Amino acid sequence: MELTLDILSWILMTTGGLFVLIGGIGALRLPNIYTRMHAASLTDTMASILVLTGIMLQAGFSLATIKLMAILVFLLLTGPTASYAIANAALLSGMRPDAAETSPDKAKTPTEPSA
Prior knowledge:
Radius of gyration: 20 Å
């Protein structure tokens, strides 16, 4: 039983680490603040769930597990709130989400001169 918990916890923590890596790559490669923030916030939330769940399995039922649950609840409440605040501040500063910026088809088509 202990070996099964160890394997499951390492799978969860490794998967969480992969989510962090994917979110970092998305934050570097995506074209504007809204798409970068979307990629980073989604993967950050999922990564924190996976990694902390894996650590909870390693810790067993103890005071550390209760503290990790409290940390997880705090992260799940503050992560989306921070993403919303950043998106709202970007929108209020004048950065509009433009469909032409995010769509590769529209970005490559030349614009026709108006008559």
